[in-house]
Write a structure and sequence with these properties.
The chain is 19% helix and 36% strand. By secondary structure, the chain is an alpha+beta fold. The longest helix is centred in the N-terminal third of the chain and has 12 residues, at 24-35.
Length: 302
């Protein structure tokens, strides 16, 4: 039996403007097919309803996914006032309704409670694991879940538009692990009118923005014409941690898993940084007592 072709060695990031109606896994699979990549992963799931920035890593860039996921996310979303749903978005069934419609001033007065370090309960339909099973699988079976609140840092939440009395558009900047649907659900509760998400678009995820994005439709063209021009460097996923330039001898030791002295630095004990040679990543490591201890190494062209 012939060996299955596992794809080419493609290293770098591509930013996809994910359309509504497909899962992040489906979008990832199509991008991997388009770039003929052997290994791929993404830095943060988007619900099928959501559109916007889906950062996809190929090859050596997959080693930076965990760090890229830590970056701040920016979302623009529309909520429907007056209705609660099973899924906290427009794909679910309406479970409660109200004729109350808060004014702009009431909405804006409620928003400060959702900024800073907050506690957020995930939606019933979410990928949170409960005793080894996904919450959404249990919710589909009719199981009522008592999900624990999780910490979330919210940098800002503001009202950006009010298309009509039934709808409000907001913009959220938050850290890892935020659920926009939970924001809508809880805001509707606090305003005593119920609410759910009808539109959701991610504008930025860490260093990745819509300015870098390609459309889903372009993937068919890339499959036939090549997509090297659309790839961002592996190091893009490391923008939020310090970089340390090292000489060739130190780079060779890092690749062998050995700690190396680093130049004078403002790093504190336990900080994570990445070492570079000629601008290309060599290793991600932890700084301890003047040494960088490699945790992950890269096999790139340096």
């Amino acid at each position: 039996m012939a060996k299955k072709h596992k794809g080419n060695q493609v290293d770098g990031w591509v930013v996809l403007d994910k359309p509504a109606g497909i899962t992040s896994v489906q979008a990832l699979s199509k991008a991997r097919w388009a770039f003929r990549a052997g290994k791929a992963g993404h830095a943060g799931t988007l619900d099928p309803l959501a559109t916007g920035v889906l950062a996809i890593a190929f090859g050596e860039a997959t080693k930076t996914v965990a760090l890229a996921q830590e970056g701040m996310k920016t979302y623009r979303f529309t909520i429907r006032l007056g209705q609660a749903t099973t899924t906290d978005d427009s794909e679910g069934e309406v479970t409660a309704a109200s004729d109350l419609r808060p004014g702009d001033a009431e909405i804006e007065a409620a928003l400060p409670a959702y900024t800073g370090d907050i506690e957020q309960v995930p939606p019933q339909f979410s990928a949170v694991k409960v005793e080894g099973e996904r919450a959404y699988d249990l919710a589909r079976e009719g199981v009522e879940l008592d999900l624990a609140a999780r910490p979330l840092y919210v940098e800002s939440l503001r009202l950006t538009a009010r298309p009509d009395p039934d709808h409000a558009e907001l913009e959220l900047v938050c850290g890892k692990g935020g659920y926009v649907r939970s924001i809508a659900r809880d805001l509707g509760r606090d305003l005593r009118c119920h609410a759910h998400v009808t539109k959701l678009r991610r504008l930025a995820s860490g260093p990745f923005t819509l300015d870098h994005a390609i459309s889903f439709e372009m993937l068919d063209e890339i499959r036939h014409m090549g997509g090297a021009d659309y790839l961002l460097p592996v190091s893009t996923g490391l923008d939020d941690i310090p970089a340390l330039a090292v000489p060739a001898a130190a780079a060779a030791r890092l690749r062998q898993g050995q700690a190396v002295p680093v130049p004078a630095t403002d790093l504190d004990y336990g900080d994570v940084a990445w070492a570079s040679l000629d601008g290309l990543p060599v290793a991600i490591g932890t700084y301890k007592a003047g040494l960088l201890h490699p945790d992950r190494v890269f096999n790139l062209g340096n």
